[in-house]
From TrEMBL:
One of its GO terms (biological process) is DNA-templated transcription termination. This is Transcription termination factor MTERF5, chloroplastic. It comes from Arachis hypogaea (Peanut). Pfam families: mTERF. The lineage of its organism: Eukaryota, Viridiplantae, Streptophyta, Embryophyta, Tracheophyta. Belongs to the mTERF family.
Amino acid sequence: MKASSSLHPHHHFPSTKLYTSITTRVYIRTQLSFPAKVFLCQAKSGTNGSINVRVMPPTLLAAEKEEAKAVLMLFLKKEGLSNAIAARTVNKSDPFIDHLVSVLHSKHKSRYLVGRELTTLEIRDAIVPYLESLLEEHGDSLVDVVENYPNPPVKEKPAVQVPPPTPIIDSKKLRTVSRVNAIDMTAGNLRPHIVYLIEFGMSIEQINGIIRRFPSFAYYSLEGKIKPVVEFFLELGVPKEDIPTILTKRPQLCGISLSENLKPTMKFLESLGVDKKQWAKVIYRFPALLTYSREKVEESIDFLRELGLSDDNIGKILTRCPNIVSYSVEDNLRPTANYFRSLGVDVGVLLFRCPQNFGLSIEANLKPVTQFFLEKGYTLDEIGTMISRFGALYTFSLADNLIPKWDFFITMGYPNSELVKFPQFFGYSLEERIKPRYARMKRAGVRLLLNQVLSLSSRNFEEALEKKLKKNSS
């Protein structure tokens, strides 16, 4: 796959202020009155050609630069560069990294304009074809092109036409093709930060997995990047045994400045109501929260307020379910809210009680559950009442939970309306709670409400049976 145009020094590495695409312009290190490395996206909108400007937050840019470095590192290594040379090239190429981010923004301009952040796969799919087009054009001088951006060495045209060389990078410096698939386990060859992580209980398999997904992690400085972040998390109360899980989920955390990004992001989230005493749990549940841009978080918060949630309740939601901010407002949150609203549900209350519902697919998860209950004879209003009374109802698997419990329910002899009154039935274990309690009630020869059978403690359940027996015998 090739980029839309080939890269020639005189027009692909401009000394002008703009890298321009059809509808999006990303400004990089310009002479405008903005700080260095501040990125702006412009897009025409409306019939009058007016311009919308969206400032890319520093936190997002920092994360994207780390992603771009990782992609470039892996690309160079796959083309034959040794670990050391690939790392040195990436470290010497900040302007080119900025340029890769601009390419990323240009390709995905529409996503940024609606506040949707890109996944690692989307970033890779945007940058790799571009790098391949550069390799095809510049061949063994690609390293010089990357390191000297935006003023690459000018290639002289040969006097005699010769067959194009095979695209090999700097053949004099090459070793065999090196891929980041494993860590050298030879004694004494482990990098300091690898040894450090192993001491925290992280396995070689876990570290290999991180490096395969995020190659730059293999070259992070222990003292400059990883150790400060880990020690900061420990100070927050994160248990030592949780560190491997957190870094496995979001290794990008170690590539973001602690003082300029992570701590300010936490202060901002605390201002929105995140309980600072619960940071250890929040980070463990969803470490990616600290890498999201302020703009992305604010967009989610604005939508929650739109649903009528108070700031206090929003703070509780962010603390209990921080991944709510990972859901796209327009692609997930709003359509899901509209769906539940069509069932007569108070969406704000439902989201507060069970925000996990809003990460479910309408087509794959929600509609099949609704259809299941409709086929059992329930009306939409009754289904709405059930989900309102038991917010987690739609989070259960049809095959593993709802269907087998329904099949047992119809043998219990209760009317269907009993589930409208007590939909929490589906939240109890079939084998450990429902069947044993029902069997005990049958042996006693009495009948309790479904709520009494399941929700009472063992002692209170026995007392309810005795009371019912006495009442029946009198």
